[in-house]
């Protein structure tokens, strides 16, 4: 029996995520310290790295995980982990994204790990973003709200500030219906602005506000985008 169309499409997306992830892992050289992203695409990176270790390759590569979830996965697969304290500059970081525009600007944070993801990306010499073609967008905000990470202290004031900037604000909830809490103990406010004309200007307004810890606009950070789709795997660079 052939799979339902929905299942077939989901399988295709998963295959594309895996293909993009596996292409990115080809950039990892022996001895490197690698930032390990969060999410289902980044998990394929971790699995590929583990498979290569099983073949006796890249045994001296160490990872810096961007979330507890990624740390647990990497540890369960025997990948040695280290910290940004021990390695303040990373060779490369490989991570997924929720939305990517033609200038390779990103929205990230669907998995709630945006703060550590941005810290790790900014600490990396090279940032490789891996996506399936469904993440490509003509303009950021078209398909995805911007996650904004806020301190629990005063979070409603930040929600009002964000509404004042024109956002439809939804507090992210966890599985039990209580507020989703990030690895750093913060809340996430998902902010729908619609298609963003000037992401840099918005980022500046977000950075200016005390209580907003970080936001999911990753601007000027991508060194390389690896996108996989029905026509194969493509590598794009900014500019
Ligand atoms: O930013 C992220 C987590 O905070 C992820 O990279 C993003 O949500 C993409 O996830 P996936 O690969 O599962 O589609």
From TrEMBL:
<comment type="subunit">
    <text>Homodimer.</text>
</comment>
<feature type="compositionally biased region" description="Basic and acidic residues">
    <location>
        <begin position="12"/>
        <end position="22"/>
    </location>
</feature>
<comment type="similarity">
    <text>Belongs to the ribose 5-phosphate isomerase family.</text>
</comment>
<feature type="binding site">
    <location>
        <begin position="38"/>
        <end position="41"/>
    </location>
    <ligand>
        <name>substrate</name>
    </ligand>
</feature>
<comment type="pathway">
    <text>Carbohydrate degradation; pentose phosphate pathway; D-ribose 5-phosphate from D-ribulose 5-phosphate (non-oxidative stage): step 1/1.</text>
</comment>
<feature type="region of interest" description="Disordered">
    <location>
        <begin position="1"/>
        <end position="22"/>
    </location>
</feature>
<feature type="binding site">
    <location>
        <position position="135"/>
    </location>
    <ligand>
        <name>substrate</name>
    </ligand>
</feature>
<feature type="active site" description="Proton acceptor">
    <location>
        <position position="117"/>
    </location>
</feature>
<feature type="binding site">
    <location>
        <begin position="108"/>
        <end position="111"/>
    </location>
    <ligand>
        <name>substrate</name>
    </ligand>
</feature>
<keyword id="KW-0413">Isomerase</keyword>
<dbReference type="GO" id="GO:0004751">
    <property type="term" value="F:ribose-5-phosphate isomerase activity"/>
</dbReference>
<protein>
    <recommendedName>
        <fullName>Ribose-5-phosphate isomerase A</fullName>
        <ecNumber>5.3.1.6</ecNumber>
    </recommendedName>
</protein>
<comment type="function">
    <text>Catalyzes the reversible conversion of ribose-5-phosphate to ribulose 5-phosphate.</text>
</comment>
<feature type="binding site">
    <location>
        <begin position="95"/>
        <end position="98"/>
    </location>
    <ligand>
        <name>substrate</name>
    </ligand>
</feature>
<dbReference type="InterPro" id="IPR020672">
    <property type="entry name" value="Ribose5P_isomerase_typA_subgr"/>
</dbReference>
<dbReference type="InterPro" id="IPR050262">
    <property type="entry name" value="Ribose-5P_isomerase"/>
</dbReference>
<dbReference type="GO" id="GO:0009052">
    <property type="term" value="P:pentose-phosphate shunt, non-oxidative branch"/>
</dbReference>
<dbReference type="InterPro" id="IPR037171">
    <property type="entry name" value="NagB/RpiA_transferase-like"/>
</dbReference>
<dbReference type="InterPro" id="IPR004788">
    <property type="entry name" value="Ribose5P_isomerase_type_A"/>
</dbReference>
<dbReference type="Pfam" id="PF06026">
    <property type="entry name" value="Rib_5-P_isom_A"/>
</dbReference>
């Amino acid at each position: 029996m052939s799979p339902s169309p929905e299942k077939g499409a989901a399988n295709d997306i998963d295959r594309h995520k895996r293909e993009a992830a596996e292409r990115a892992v080809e950039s990892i050289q022996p001895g490197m310290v690698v930032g390990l992203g969060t999410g289902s695409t980044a998990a394929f990176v971790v699995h590929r790295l583990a498979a290569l270790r099983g073949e006796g390759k890249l045994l001296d590569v160490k990872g810096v995980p961007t979330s507890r979830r990624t740390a647990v996965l990497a540890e369960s697969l025997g990948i040695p982990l280290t910290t940004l304290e021990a390695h303040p500059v990373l060779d490369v970081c490989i991570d997924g994204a929720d939305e990517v525009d033609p200038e390779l600007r990103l929205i990230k944070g669907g998995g709630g790990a945006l703060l550590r993801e941005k810290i790790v990306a900014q600490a990396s010499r090279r940032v490789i973003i891996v996506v399936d073609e469904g993440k490509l967008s003509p303009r950021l905000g078209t398909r995805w709200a911007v996650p904004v990470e806020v301190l629990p202290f005063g979070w409603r004031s930040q929600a009002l500030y964000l509404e004042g900037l024109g956002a439809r604000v939804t507090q992210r909830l966890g599985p039990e219906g209580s507020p989703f809490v990030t690895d750093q103990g913060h809340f996430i406010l998902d902010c729908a602005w619609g298609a963003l004309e000037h992401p840099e200007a918005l980022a500046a307004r977000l950075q200016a506000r005390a209580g907003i810890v970080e936001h999911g606009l990753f601007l000027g950070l991508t060194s390389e985008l690896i996108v996989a789709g029905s026509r194969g795997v493509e590598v794009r660079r900014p500019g």
